[in-house]
User: Which sequence fits this backbone?
Protein backbone atom coordinates (compact mmCIF):
# COMPACT_ATOMS: atom_id res chain seq x y z
CA UNK A 1 0.00 0.00 0.00
CA UNK A 2 1.29 3.40 -0.95
CA UNK A 3 1.85 5.52 2.13
CA UNK A 4 3.12 9.05 2.63
CA UNK A 5 5.38 10.18 5.40
CA UNK A 6 3.80 13.57 5.76
CA UNK A 7 1.02 15.80 4.53
CA UNK A 8 3.28 17.59 2.07
CA UNK A 9 4.02 14.33 0.21
CA UNK A 10 0.30 13.59 0.00
CA UNK A 11 -0.52 17.07 -1.33
CA UNK A 12 2.29 16.91 -3.90
CA UNK A 13 1.42 13.40 -5.08
CA UNK A 14 -2.30 14.13 -5.46
CA UNK A 15 -2.18 17.69 -6.71
CA UNK A 16 -4.42 18.90 -9.55
CA UNK A 17 -1.35 19.04 -11.78
CA UNK A 18 -1.13 15.22 -11.60
CA UNK A 19 -4.68 14.53 -12.83
CA UNK A 20 -3.77 13.01 -16.19
CA UNK A 21 -0.63 11.31 -14.91
CA UNK A 22 -2.43 9.46 -12.10
CA UNK A 23 -5.80 8.93 -13.77
CA UNK A 24 -4.99 8.19 -17.39
CA UNK A 25 -6.04 4.55 -17.10
CA UNK A 26 -9.37 4.53 -15.31
CA UNK A 27 -9.53 0.97 -13.94
CA UNK A 28 -5.91 1.09 -12.72
CA UNK A 29 -6.63 4.45 -11.14
CA UNK A 30 -9.53 2.96 -9.18
CA UNK A 31 -7.63 -0.20 -8.30
CA UNK A 32 -4.53 1.61 -7.00
CA UNK A 33 -3.27 0.32 -3.68
CA UNK A 34 -3.60 3.53 -1.69
CA UNK A 35 -5.52 4.41 1.47
CA UNK A 36 -8.99 5.87 1.10
CA UNK A 37 -9.64 9.53 1.84
CA UNK A 38 -11.32 8.64 5.15
CA UNK A 39 -8.05 7.09 6.31
CA UNK A 40 -6.15 10.17 5.19
CA UNK A 41 -8.65 12.27 7.20
CA UNK A 42 -8.08 10.09 10.27
CA UNK A 43 -4.30 10.29 9.89
CA UNK A 44 -3.94 14.02 9.23
CA UNK A 45 -7.29 15.58 10.03
CA UNK A 46 -10.32 16.95 8.29
CA UNK A 47 -8.63 20.26 7.54
CA UNK A 48 -6.07 18.59 5.26
CA UNK A 49 -8.63 16.56 3.28
CA UNK A 50 -10.98 19.54 3.02
CA UNK A 51 -8.24 21.86 1.78
CA UNK A 52 -6.91 19.18 -0.59
CA UNK A 53 -10.30 18.64 -2.20
CA UNK A 54 -11.00 22.38 -2.14
CA UNK A 55 -8.02 22.93 -4.47
CA UNK A 56 -9.83 20.89 -7.14
CA UNK A 57 -13.08 22.77 -6.58
CA UNK A 58 -11.21 26.09 -6.80
CA UNK A 59 -9.72 25.03 -10.12
CA UNK A 60 -13.20 24.27 -11.47
CA UNK A 61 -14.38 27.60 -10.08
CA UNK A 62 -11.60 29.49 -11.83
CA UNK A 63 -11.66 27.49 -15.08
CA UNK A 64 -15.42 27.89 -15.55
CA UNK A 65 -15.23 31.37 -17.02
CA UNK A 66 -18.44 32.30 -15.19
CA UNK A 67 -18.81 35.64 -13.44
CA UNK A 68 -20.68 34.31 -10.44
CA UNK A 69 -18.42 31.79 -8.76
CA UNK A 70 -18.63 29.73 -5.61
CA UNK A 71 -17.50 31.47 -2.46
CA UNK A 72 -14.63 30.11 -0.36
CA UNK A 73 -17.22 29.04 2.23
CA UNK A 74 -19.18 27.10 -0.38
CA UNK A 75 -16.01 25.46 -1.66
CA UNK A 76 -15.02 24.38 1.85
CA UNK A 77 -18.55 23.17 2.63
CA UNK A 78 -18.78 21.09 -0.52
CA UNK A 79 -15.27 19.74 -0.04
CA UNK A 80 -16.31 18.58 3.44
CA UNK A 81 -19.53 17.09 2.11
CA UNK A 82 -17.75 15.18 -0.64
CA UNK A 83 -15.07 13.80 1.67
CA UNK A 84 -17.73 12.82 4.20
CA UNK A 85 -20.10 11.19 1.71
CA UNK A 86 -17.42 9.53 -0.42
CA UNK A 87 -14.58 9.04 2.06
CA UNK A 88 -14.31 5.39 1.02
CA UNK A 89 -12.91 6.50 -2.34
CA UNK A 90 -9.19 6.74 -2.92
CA UNK A 91 -7.59 10.09 -3.70
CA UNK A 92 -7.09 8.99 -7.31
CA UNK A 93 -10.81 8.32 -7.67
CA UNK A 94 -11.65 11.86 -6.59
CA UNK A 95 -9.07 13.04 -9.08
CA UNK A 96 -10.61 10.86 -11.79
CA UNK A 97 -13.96 12.53 -11.14
CA UNK A 98 -12.43 15.99 -11.58
CA UNK A 99 -10.58 14.88 -14.73
CA UNK A 100 -13.82 13.56 -16.24
CA UNK A 101 -15.75 16.63 -15.05
CA UNK A 102 -13.26 18.95 -16.73
CA UNK A 103 -13.40 16.78 -19.85
CA UNK A 104 -17.13 17.54 -20.08
CA UNK A 105 -18.63 14.18 -19.13
CA UNK A 106 -20.88 15.63 -16.43
CA UNK A 107 -23.01 18.68 -16.40
CA UNK A 108 -22.45 22.22 -17.42
CA UNK A 109 -22.55 25.54 -15.64
CA UNK A 110 -24.89 28.16 -17.02
CA UNK A 111 -25.00 31.57 -15.33
CA UNK A 112 -22.87 30.67 -12.32
CA UNK A 113 -20.71 27.94 -10.86
CA UNK A 114 -23.37 25.89 -9.13
CA UNK A 115 -22.06 23.48 -6.47
CA UNK A 116 -25.19 21.34 -6.94
CA UNK A 117 -24.08 20.65 -10.52
CA UNK A 118 -20.86 19.28 -9.05
CA UNK A 119 -22.61 17.05 -6.51
CA UNK A 120 -25.12 15.77 -9.08
CA UNK A 121 -22.21 15.12 -11.41
CA UNK A 122 -20.56 13.15 -8.63
CA UNK A 123 -23.67 10.93 -8.45
CA UNK A 124 -23.35 10.26 -12.19
CA UNK A 125 -19.65 9.57 -11.75
CA UNK A 126 -20.43 7.02 -9.04
CA UNK A 127 -22.88 5.23 -11.37
CA UNK A 128 -20.27 5.19 -14.11
CA UNK A 129 -17.66 3.93 -11.62
CA UNK A 130 -19.96 1.12 -10.46
CA UNK A 131 -20.60 0.04 -14.04
CA UNK A 132 -16.92 0.22 -15.00
CA UNK A 133 -15.83 -1.77 -11.95
CA UNK A 134 -18.60 -4.31 -12.63
CA UNK A 135 -17.36 -4.78 -16.20
CA UNK A 136 -13.76 -5.05 -15.01
CA UNK A 137 -14.77 -7.67 -12.42
CA UNK A 138 -16.73 -9.63 -15.04
CA UNK A 139 -13.71 -9.59 -17.36
CA UNK A 140 -11.42 -10.69 -14.53
CA UNK A 141 -13.77 -13.54 -13.65
CA UNK A 142 -13.96 -14.60 -17.31
CA UNK A 143 -10.15 -14.62 -17.61
CA UNK A 144 -9.89 -16.65 -14.40
CA UNK A 145 -12.45 -19.18 -15.67
CA UNK A 146 -10.56 -19.49 -18.96
CA UNK A 147 -7.30 -20.12 -17.11
CA UNK A 148 -8.98 -22.77 -14.96
CA UNK A 149 -10.54 -24.37 -18.01
CA UNK A 150 -7.18 -24.41 -19.79
CA UNK A 151 -5.56 -26.00 -16.75
CA UNK A 152 -8.26 -28.67 -16.63
CA UNK A 153 -7.97 -29.29 -20.38
CA UNK A 154 -4.20 -29.53 -20.12
CA UNK A 155 -4.56 -32.21 -17.46
CA UNK A 156 -7.04 -34.30 -19.48
CA UNK A 157 -5.84 -37.59 -20.94
CA UNK A 158 -7.36 -40.14 -23.26
CA UNK A 159 -8.71 -43.44 -22.01
CA UNK A 160 -5.80 -45.23 -23.69
CA UNK A 161 -3.31 -43.00 -21.85
CA UNK A 162 -5.11 -43.69 -18.58
CA UNK A 163 -4.80 -47.45 -19.17
CA UNK A 164 -1.10 -47.12 -20.03
CA UNK A 165 -0.44 -45.11 -16.85
CA UNK A 166 -2.49 -47.52 -14.71
CA UNK A 167 -0.64 -50.50 -16.13
CA UNK A 168 2.71 -48.79 -15.61
CA UNK A 169 1.82 -47.96 -12.01
CA UNK A 170 0.56 -51.44 -11.12
CA UNK A 171 2.95 -53.36 -13.32
CA UNK A 172 0.44 -55.04 -15.54
CA UNK A 173 0.52 -54.91 -19.32
CA UNK A 174 -2.79 -56.60 -19.95
CA UNK A 175 -5.16 -54.82 -22.27
CA UNK A 176 -8.36 -53.73 -20.57
Assistant:
Amino acid sequence: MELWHDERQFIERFSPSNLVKLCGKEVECMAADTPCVAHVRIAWGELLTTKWLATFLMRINEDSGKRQKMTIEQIDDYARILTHEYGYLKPQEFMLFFLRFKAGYYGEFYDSVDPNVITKSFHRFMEWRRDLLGKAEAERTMRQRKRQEQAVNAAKITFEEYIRRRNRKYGTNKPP
